[in-house]
Amino acid sequence: MVFANRACAALFGPQVVGSNFVRDALANPAIAETIVNWPEVAWAGLDRLRQQVRQAPFDEGLHSLVATAEAALDGMSRPPPAEAGLMYARGSVSAARWCAPSRWSPGSTTSAT
C-alpha cells in the first residue's frame, strides 16, 4: 500500500501505508477472522492484482503476488456477485473498496485507482 485515503487510515491505522495486502492480509488467516465480508475482500484483492498484471505483464513481482494470493484463496469459494447497485456486503462496507491497491506516482497527492 503506497497511499491510504482518510477512510482507509481510519479503518486500518496509519501503519497500513507500506504494508502489502497479499503478504499481510491474504496470506494471514487471522485477518479473515476480523473482516466480516472476508471472501468478498479477498477475491476483490486478487481480481485487482490480476488486472494490474494485465497492465504490467512483465512485472515478476506482481506475478509472484498473484501466485501467493491464488494459493491463499485455494479452497475458498468465490462469493456470488452483489445485486446490481448493492455496495454493502452483509451490512459492512467492503475494505477492498476503501483500501484498494492503487497506482501512485511520487509527487502525486491523490491515488489514481
Report the strand count: 2
Q: Helix tally? A: 6
Helix content: 40-55%
The major β-sheet equals: 2 strands, antiparallel
Binned strand content: under 5%
Q: Which geometry do the CA atoms define? A: globular
How would you spell out the order of helices and strands?
HHHHHEEH
Protein model, in words:
47% of the residues lie in helices and 4% in strands. It is mainly alpha-helical and 113 residues long. The chain has one domain (6-79, 87-98). Strands 1-2 form a two-stranded antiparallel ribbon. Strand 1 (88-89) and strand 2 form a beta hairpin. Helix 4 (38-55) packs antiparallel against helix 5. It is globular and about 35 Å long. The relative contact order is 0.20.
